Fold each of these.
Amino acid sequence: MTPTPRSLPDSIDATLDLLAAADYLADRSLATVLFLALKMGRPLFLEGEAGVGKTEIAKVLSTTLGRHLIRLQCYEGLDVSTAVYEWNYAAQMIAIRVAEAEGAHDRERLEHDVFSERFLIKRPLLQALEPDPAGAPVLLIDELDRADEAFEAFLLEVLADFQVTIPELGTVKALRPPIVVITSNRTREIHDALKRRCLYHWVGYPIAERELKIVRAKVPDIGKTLSGQVVHFVQSLRKQDLFKAPGVAETLDWAAALAELDVVALDPSTVSDTLGVLLKYQDDIARIEGGKAKELIDEVRAELRAAE
Amino acid sequence: MDPFVSSAHQPLFAAEHVRGSDGAHARAERTAGRLAENIVHFARALRAAGIPVGPGAVMDALAAVEAAGVGTREDFYWTLHAVLVKRHEHSLIFDQAFRIFFRRRGLLDKLLAAMLPQAPAREEEKAPPGAQRIQEALLSSLREAERKPRELEADARLTVSDREVLQKKDFAQMTAAEIAAAKDAIKRLVLSLDEVKTRRLAPHRHGHLVDIRRTLRASLKAGGAVIDLKYLGPRSKSPPIVALLDISGSMSQYTRLFLHFLHAVTDARKRVHTFLFGTRLTNVTRALKAKDPDEALAAVGANVADWSGGTRIATSLHAFNKLWARRVLTEGAIVLLITDGLERDPDDRLAFEIDRLHRSCRRLIWLNPLLRFSGFEAKAKGIRTMVPHVDELRPIHNLDSMAQLVRALSPTGGRSGDPKAWLDKVA
């Protein structure tokens, strides 16, 4: 797939339209911060609960702007050899043996040959700094809170100057800095030094109206009644005292599941049967199942009737 | 919350509308200058309210406002928000500051004047949380200036036998002088911490993985003739400590010294989180970071509303599990739960919450000053509920027991204080 590059949006409204073109319905605050990040060439730091569409932004940006998406999924123990580059040791070994067999004994020369770009395996961060005909790529650094602090410190260096130093080879600097999107679920606090280099935004749960639009855009074959009920049910679920409230991703999954089951309107038994799509903790499910679900459905119905 | 209700149009935004003639141009420049000045002042106000805004951020704000070509108040708001706010909890403060500041300039000075200590207290009006914090920020700098220089402390040196007595003496029975001496002793406790293996690797002489990179470089040095294997092994790291300290009435004789202990621990290493609970949970980690223990404790005191009240262990643990556990219990955290376990209204929730806490940390140590009584029996319902869910149950009522705890936390300390022993005693 060769994406067709598009120029960056030139106003906040254009940014909103750009996102909407890929069915991503953002609120104005998010569009503002995204526009500024693009315009000022700064990384965008998105924090928020799981499943509110943080990662999706990077994907949408890459498709709508026609840029390549380079994704770095963080985990504990992530280090330079998996995030930036690694030498292809096996190939290097062979090269050394071949040189020996040929009787070459120029050590300097050998070292120079072995540590050349030919033997370099590029990992996401280095790839993102490479020139790309489609324009600077979108670099998604996903769930940074899962990586440890040591990696954060390293990232600081990369994000400050968009360059990486490889001791054997020299410094690689991006001609055009990539569009960087960093996400965090806030399982721990990211260091201020890193945040300072980014534009920060907290992605919250959308209001009912927007969530309804999102559901209808993403699950087109869902009925009007059902979509309204689904969204209002989820919205009232988020007000309950739950260990983990459902995100937009869960709403969409649930809507798709119900549409697949040919459900026309919510009823307590369907809700109880499919609650596992929305809630991922047994205590939460136990709390909502049965009586509570019925109560919520009744509330939702009354609310929707009043709105009509 | 919509920050844009009652938005009187500001001269601030006039720069957008005046363009064309030379006179208008000059006017526009003047307005832009005033906008810059306004932003600088606004940043200063935010800083006073506790949002860290450096000079770099101010420059960014100016650039951002220029880039966004601000038209409406809403866009202006989110533009500044994007650049100046770096933490979710600062959003509220920013919102308050924005409303106050851009409603009318010079308000900050008025606010300062209005906040003078003699002003009548009206706290029951339920001000929005952000506003309260801004006011507190302004107040605290006043208070600091007021604070008198500390008096010289009495000489608390003790003879050897005195010290022995002190080591064994119950905190609850100490005199003021002894407490001062105990504080000194606590300060000297050296905490060497338990270590957990991380997934990160480091060069290691007897590691389990071959470090090909180093191996290759070493062999190249010898012209590729010799291959001398270099190894990698896991790097270890001390886990964070999370302390949950009961400050209810029944614990009041101990809390102050425990706080000293926690302060000493916080001092020694960075990753310590401290929470206090009586009827509700308060995070005092930041307050305890002050270097001087008395200053730190004063800051803690200012933060907490429920000193020496009742205990709601289940409610407090619930709040901790829900709001904090996922953020602070990472990388094999050790939880120190310091309470006598005398729950006001023990029910099923207590078992549920303590179980959840136990499952989300690596090691749960319950420090109970009641264990000082040799005939202690886990009879109270709250205690019986909690004991099966903790990894260790230890006394903490004198300096000796504190020293034992420190030993238990060290890498070679091993584990003792099996909680089941206490249950068996009753059975």
Amino acid sequence: METILEIKNLKTHFFTKAGLIKAVDDISFKIKKGEIVGLVGESGSGKSITGFSIIGLIDAPGRIVSGSINFKNEPLLNASSNRMQSLRGNRLAMIFQDPMMTLNPVLRIDTQMIETIKAHDKNISNQEAFRRCRDTLGLVGISSPEERMKAYPHQFSGGMRQRVCIAIAMLNKPDLIIADEPTTALDVTIQGQVIYEMQELCKKTGTALLWITHDLAVVAGIASKICVMYAGRIVEQGSVDDIINKPMHPYTIGLIKSVPSQNKRGEPLHQIEGMVPSMLELPIGCAFHDRCTETIEKCKIEKPIETNQSDSRVIRCFNFKDIRK
Amino acid sequence: MLNTDSNSKNINVFMYKFWSDFSESKVAVISLLILIAIVLIAIFAPLISPSDPYDLSKVSIMDSRLPPMAKNFAGDIFILGTDGAGRDMLSAIFYGLRVSLGVGVMSAIFALIIGTIFGISAAFFGGKYETFIMRIVDIQLSFPSILMALIILAAFGKGIEKTIIALVLVQWAYYARTARAAALVERSKEYVEAAQCLALGNKKIMFNHILPNCMPSLIVVGTLQTAHAISLEATLSFLGLGLPITEPSLGLLIGNGFQYMHTGDFWISIFPGVALLITIVSINLVGDQLRDMYNPRLKK
Amino acid sequence: MTAFILRRSTQSIIVLFIMSLLVFSGVNLVGDPVEMLINPEADQAEVERVIKELGLDKPITEQYWYFLMNAFKGDLGTSFIFGEPALKLIVQRMPATIELALFSLFISLIFAIPLGIYAGLKPESKISKTIMAGSILGFSMPTFWVGILFIMFFAVYLGWLPSTGRGEIGSFLGVKSSLFTLDGLSHIFLPALNLALFKLSSVIRLTRAGTREIIHQDYIKFARAKGVAESRVINVHLLKNILIPIVTIIGLEFGSLIAFSTVTETVFAWPGMGKLIIDSIYNLDRPVIVAYLMIIVIFFVFLNLLVDILYTLLDPRVRIQGSN
């Protein structure tokens, strides 16, 4: 299967007045055509920054420092801004977290949708563009799309707004959609719907999806591959089956155990001890070592490197328990 | 209750922090120094002026309209030239600074006191009283200051006291609005409730507790408004409506010199104008820095 | 919406009444125009005749009542100096002032908005810092002094532009204005620039602050993520959001321009309402003063009302109630 996105050793650092923040520090993974990949991590783990790095919207004082991002075999990092602009919203789309803030409050929905089409196809007629927008709105489950399009964002509910954003992402039939916590700001009941709809959409259109979230449960349902991030690095990645049922990295194991549904009723909820370190003061050695149950001496001094356990399984740890043995 | 030792230490810490924040902007520091120089000139004008421009016995029409650095028959040198009546421009400017600064600062202080009293009491007592006061403030603020000043001076006539009154009446509304906004924030804080529980008198609460916390925003507004008052007074005097000719401010000097412009005797208007400009700009720059320092939204 | 307009209109009328009372009593209770107008050598009979003629012998409340009644009829008194109805004098000079104010507004917006947006997008660049420094200067310099500088530099020294008066009046689509002739433009340019300078600074600062705030919003980033060209991001997404606070300011700015025109008109001898009022205050021409103040107050109250309505129209969030 064709590889749509290949990231190798990506490092995105922020040079702030308070100090250097290595938000993304050497991550590598691949996404194949039509694949749904989950990027899971706590706040501050660098997952959103990964998304923005791919689409090329890192603001100062941040900068991609090294590594490579290949989109359909085209390197993105040194691409001209014109090239990036022609890819964004076209072959490579992004959905943001908070739909309330993502749509411009003073522009109508149809304006904001049609401009996405016209930015990449100057010759299309207004009616044709309007029709495409209307059809895509129907696709994401918005009823009476023609009237809805004349409305302003504040007239929609949160779930509807997010659906509009998803529709906007799908307008030009992209190869890859990066979804940055798309359901976090929504009500739980709507969440389920939107997750399901996105899954169906991607199946139907063959669009690859990178689902960035802190909620393992959400992504376990639809992804085929999961990457777990901690403090700017991917600590474990593998097929969803492997990660959920046979986790090997101590952090992943802790994460899985922490999901409430894993508990029996009445049992105390599992927690990973300690707190996520501040990105300004990362410990020497493995960033997780002071919270880890399997720490050995080496962990305190050296940073673990990635080791391939099989074709799809990669672990960054010195002392993981290989459950398969 | 607080012992004076820790009080004075607090003040020292405060002054230190204030200065280190303020001096982050070199421009503001330079402006402050210039401002201090101007204030000193204004205070000591009689001592440092080459001559007293309002001593009629010393001023001679024969010396009129001499260009800068010219000498008259007696060998007196006029560094900035003389005006239409023969007065030395440099001295006239020093004395003029005195009047301009004096009127501006005095009106600002009075406006500050009146505005603060109304603003804080409005926030504290609330209800119909607050609505009434703030409605007046809003209406007054919707009219440009120059219009208000014109109306008042048209009604009451010229003169130094009337000009100050006019300036105060124009400005109090800015202070009232700022004081009320700051006081509203303070009022909802816990220490006010605590003080009320202790049954401290209302006046005491307002002035000993709320007022000190409103001071930062009031100082910022005060600085910028002083510049505004000086500019407004200059405009009114220029138009012939403000101060009388016996107490000429820089505005009046500029006004008097205006007629000589077309014949090319520019110095009679321009030099007082430059002095006015430097004064206003330095006050504004200092005020700007103060405002940035106390603006919570800019804290990163 | 209609309830809102009604409420604000009623408030405006109340304000008008109060202001008329203040203006009338203020002007009439202080100062003695009798001394001003009557020849000091006139005998008592002459003095009494004039007093009766001008209605100054009646009690002040009666004078106010007559004043109001006449005002409704459109008669705001007769000028002591010119002998003509005060209202007529003002209306004659109004076009000149409005022309000046409009042109100034135009100049200040055309320059201030792009400069402010630039300063907001690139706050650290040298050009931006120069713009901001310039705006403090523009803000600090009293209008009259800038006017003097302009005259000195452009008229006396360089001789490029005339220093006083209004130019030829031309006509376009039935509107008469000195903007439509070259001579007219050369006369209006300096005073308009002078008037505009102060406003320029405040609009630049407002635009810059707004730009800095808006450019970091999520919807700007999202627009970029859609591949929308940067020029459109600025000219549509940013601009439309920034215009809301600016347009509300424009209303107040225009009023302030009319007020400050008193100064500019005096400096440049521009034959507008502003010069009339200054001269009238000098000459204690009470009817003209009162008439001018009343007209200005009406104008301002109306302007404020208009701005309030405009604001609700522009911001769709205020205009259309959400479906939630």
